[in-house]
Amino acid sequence: MNFSLKIFAFLCVCSQLLFSQSKEIRFLSGKDAEHTESWDFWINSGRKSGKWSEIQVPSHWEQQGFGAYNYGRDYVTYGKNFQFHDETGLYKRKFTVPNSWKNKTISIVFEGSMTDTEVKINGKSAGTVHQGAFYEFKYNISDKIRFGKENVIEVRVSKMSADKSVNNAERLADYWILGGIFRPVYLEATSKQHISRTAIDARADGSFHADIHLKGINHAGNIKVELFDAQNTLVGESQVQVQKGDTLKQIRFSVKNPKLWTAETPDLYKARFNLDKNGKKIFQTEEKFGFRTIEIRKGDGIFINGTKVKMKGINRHVWWPETGRAITENIDLMDVKLIKEMNMNAVRCSHYPPDKSFLRICDSLGLYVLDELAGWQKKYSTEAGKKLVKEMVIRDANHPSIIFWSNGNEGGHNFDLDTEFAKYDLSGRPVIHAHHKPGNAFNGIDCNHYEDYNSTRKILEGENIYMPTEFLHAQDDGGGGTSLADYWELHWNSGKGAGGFLWAFADEGLVRTDFNNQIDVNAINAPDGVLGPHREKEGSFYAIREIYSPVKIDLKTLPADFNGLIPVENRYHLTNINDCRFEWKLVKFKTPFSSESGFDVIQKGKAESPDIRPAEKGYIRLNLPADFRGQDGLLLTATDAFGKELYTWTWKLKSNDKVSEQFSKSLIKEFPVSAVENDSLFILKSDEKEFAIGKKDGLLKSVIVDKKGKKMSFRNGPVFVTGTTELSGIRSFAEGKRQCIEAKYRNGNTVLWKLNPDGILELSYEYSLSGDYQLAGVSFDEPENYVISARWMGKGPYHVWKNRTQGQAYNVWQNLKNSTRTGQSPWIYPEFKGYFDDVSWMQLDTAEGKITVGTKQERMFVRLFDFYGIYGAEGYPKLPGGNISFLDAIPPLGTVLAFNINDKTESLGPESEPNHLEGTFRRTLYFYFGLPDRGDGNKQFIMPKENILTD
User: Fold this and answer.
1) Fewer beta carbons within 10 angstroms: which end of the chain, N or C?
2) Contact at 8 Å (CB) between 520 and 507?
3) By C-alpha distance, which of 250, 268, 260, 198 is closest to 22?
4) Taking every annotated instance into account, which residue ranges of this chain make up the domain Glycoside hydrolase family 2 immunoglobulin-like beta-sandwich (predicted)?
5) Taking the chain, what is the end-to-end CA distance rounded to the nearest angstrom?
6) How many other CB atoms sit within 10 Å of the CB of residue 515?
């Protein structure tokens, strides 16, 4: 357990101990999905139906092997034949209540149950049936309890609500619909006279205002309110008189110079409320809160404590594959830390309120939160919605992390509910509408979903603040970090740009207990995350991390006159760059034939943190040693004031021309080179190697690597990936010790093969282009099923697209072959297939031997095998011919949405436009087949080491 987790756990324990002074709690269920309790259970239909057995609570009954599965969009899949699974589960459990609870108010609390929930205690109704899955509700059962004796609780849970609007809002949704009591159930005992709840409004000016709701007050007394800072130092106090029959008291006072809560500075305070009678404390409760002021300045922006902020946010479902929406506090903590690892500052709780622990962690670690009333394109009725708004806001009102209430999603807005939130939220947070159609701005904020780049620019020129609550839909490998850099620049540089929320955090893959525990993402419906179901990191995760880094460094390559000065922009809202820490490293990368990956650190040092205020620019001076250019690479790591790594930038210090010398240094033997020909082939020979070049097309036809005639299957290249070529002439000639074959084509392209005495087969090619192209370069064939692994020096370890090159680092990487299709099982990352960026050399380990290829020129992309970014009726973008390509240009990737499905990616911004190519392109590749001889007749091989540069 790391230090931050220990501190968080300690604070949670302290909070529970203090809470128990005011309320006694006894769980009837387990406390979370990992710590459950057995209840008796019966279900009316589906698996294991019609008989009593046991179920773990909290849980979803589908995950316990009961009933049938239902994805919210089944009505699309099954059309006219669709019917809701009308499943009803009966729960029973015996429990005891101590005699010491006599003369107390006893409530039973349900934190979440899908969907209609009817409760009986000892055969008596606890109250009206609760309708709505994601909301905490309670019943006063004081008059139904048998103290010191056995009690029985019976719960009837109907997966389908009797209220059509509840089904519309919660079930007709683009997510899994899972039944049962999925959050904890517990008894809560308080004194008869008690504080039932509080609502706090603590502003940036230090003013503190609280509504204190009371129950059972039958004597005069007073309420004392004490405020404590994070060190438990008393910083303010006041009191108010209470009279018999009072149900609400208000208190106001101020604290001087409080520390203010923001996502960058999550400073929390504690309010202790003491209810006294004749100087004796009869009830106490505590609440964590933060001093902060939220303002929507129409036509300007969103302001926290007087500072304009922009949301670097993402949408999150409450989710874990094995347990669905029944989760644990550790999962909540992991998710908040992952969101912050991406350098985000905000999260939207789509499409329902989350677990309470998630909000506590957002308060503690610092995230701006949109807390959302359910309503996925359909809305609650006013009658049902009013009750649920009340339950949602009463539970969540004192969390400083919540800066907006969201009234439904994409048309699921009941406008009659807009004014309901303020009835229970003393701080009067703004209400927004998360919508998907233009012209629905509310409270001065336009939240329209999935606008393209030009539409976004036009909206930002309008009268409203623009904060899309969903954008860059990340199904499969599209969206997410793809095109994000362009969108973020628009928002950052626009006065009315408020940032937005990517769709979505994690693939909603569910372990299907009816299909041998396979993970199901419901085809194209649920693989929408930048993480996998178990939080496996996709390439977009790292791209987002770089793009959203508050320390912004855009330096892609080091200039020839680089002197250790790094340009930097401060994209924090409140934090000076001098609060961050910087460390540099000079490294040596492993070489092509060493079989090792990673690098060796030669020297490291710390850079002085520059004084750069928010939104300003400056420089970081690294103070490198004079001979730094003698090393291979430079790394720079930025760490924030809390010790969290923001990002590590990497640069090559040597050109590929220098890197390619590593080939010849490793090849110490030379052999005579010769050329022969027959009717169809030129054959270049050197010792035991032979390379056959076709006379009709200039392509490599075969590779023989030993005297026994052992062949390797790498062949059929170089095929130019753009345009058609027709041979105009081919010749064989000697050049010193080398034998050469030159092929010329009618369109002006040329290919020159050279076999060197050291065994390197050198390929130089040239082609000219003018216009817009998806791809440029050459391809070869290699049987995919023969390939075992790849090792390369370049950017990695994830594949890239033209509009998502961010997030990858220079290193010597190694990846075992996998067939991962982004967003689908088996979620083995990084993916083996794809376009890889800025490769200096790559070595393929195959069943036939090793193939090593390097390049003399800079910025080469390597394509490995067949893969697609978006999986629809066809895969997109289209791939070049062959299955291993050496490219000067690669395609951008769109999103799954209609305006991009046919590769029309240019609507997503400048990075997503086709490659604008003009001129002649030249590249030289070096091929070596097998391993070099060390000189004693043995082939060189060293066992690989683990990558040094990791996440």
Assistant:
1) N
2) no
3) 198
4) 198-292
5) 18
6) 10
